[in-house]
Amino acid sequence: MTEYPRFDLNGQVALVTGASKGIGYGLAKALAQAGAKVVVTARDLPALETLANEIRAEGGDAIAMQLDVLNIPQISTVMQAAHDHYGRLDILVNNAGLGANHAAVDVTEADWDGMMDVNLKGLFFCCQAAGRIMLEQGYGRIINMSSQASVVGIRDHAVYCATKGGINQLTRVLALEWSAHGVTVNAVGPTFIYTPGTAERLDNPEYLQGVLNRLPIGHVGTIADVAGAVIYLASPAGGMVSGTLLLVDGGWTAQ
Ligand SMILES: NC(=O)c1ccc[n+]([C@@H]2O[C@H](COP(=O)([O-])OP(=O)(O)OC[C@H]3O[C@@H](n4cnc5c(N)ncnc54)[C@H](O)[C@@H]3O)[C@@H](O)[C@H]2O)c1
To answer: What average pLDDT does the chain have?
Structure first.
C-alpha cells in the first residue's frame, strides 16, 4: 500500500515571529495543534508567555522568547537558543510585519524605512539565521508571510506592496540556493484577514463593502484559512513545493 503524506508535524520544532497577536498568534496555536513544539517570538514577552501557557494548557509544548526582528544580532541568538532548547529547528514562519495606509505622495523616509526594515530586512535575516541551522541539519521548512498585495497593487500601500513583492523574490532565490539541501522556502499570500490589525478598517461597513466588491469568494478570510496553507507547506505533504507563493486570496487575484 502506498503511504501518502500527512499534515502532521509531530516531533518537529517550529518558530513563529510576531506571534504576540493576530495571525502569528493563531499560527503558533495551529502549529502546536498539528503536533509541533513551538517557539513563540515577538517583542511583547508577557503576551508571548500567555500564548505559551495557553498552548501548554491545551496539551502542546511551547516556549516564549523575545525577538525584535529589527535587532539583527538578536535574530541569530534567538534562532540558536530555540535550536539549543529543543535540539532541532525544523520550521520557521516569518510572520512579523507592518502595514500602513499612505498616499504615495505623503510617504516619508521614516514610513519607508520602518516597513522595509521589519517586512523585508528583518525577514531576510531571520531566513538567513534559521537557514544556517537548517542547512547543517539537512532539513527545514521556511514560510514567509507575503500578501495578495505582493502581486497586485493596493491603493495607498506603495511601500507595503513593495515589501511583499520583495518577499516573493527573496523566497524564490532562497529556494534556488537551499532546496537541494532539504530546506524548502515558500511564501503565503493572504487576502484581507480579520485580525486586531485590520479590525478597525473591516468594521467600517463602507470599507468592508469595497473589499467584498473585489473578493469573488464573498467574505474576508480568517486566521484559520492562513493556518491551512502554513500547515500544508510545513508538513511532509508539502515536501515537493519550494519557491512558490501560495495565495489564500478568495480569488482576488484571479480577476
Ligand atoms: N491581516 C491581514 O489582512 C493580512 C493580509 C495579508 C498579509 N498579512 C501579513 O500577515 C502578517 C501578520 O499580520 P497581522 O494582521 O496579524 O498583523 P498584526 O499587526 O496584528 O501583527 C503583526 C505582528 O508582527 C509583530 N511585529 C511588528 N514589528 C515587529 C518587530 N520589529 N519584531 C517582531 N515582531 C514585530 C507585531 O508585534 C505583531 O505580533 C504580516 O506580515 C502582514 O503583513 C496580513
So the answer is: 97
Per-residue pLDDT of 120-150, as tens digits, reads: 999 999 999 999 999 999 999 999 999 999 9
Ligand 1 atom at shortest distance from the alpha carbon of 70: 31
Write down the domain spans for the chain: 13-193+222-243
Distance 19 CA to ligand 1 centre (A): 8
- pLDDT of 3 higher than 90: no
Ligand 1 contacts CB of residue 89 (under 6 A): no
Span 144-164, average pLDDT: 97
160 included as an active-site residue: yes
Which amino acid residue places its CA nearest to atom 15 of ligand 1? 197
Prediction pTM value? 0.98
Domain 13-193+222-243 is found in CATH 3.40.50.720: yes
Q: How many CB atoms lie within 10 A of CB 102?
A: 16
From 93, 98, 222, give the residue whose CB has the most ligand 1 atoms within 8 Å, as the site to mutate.
98
Ligand 1 pocket check for 151: Cβ under 6 Å: no
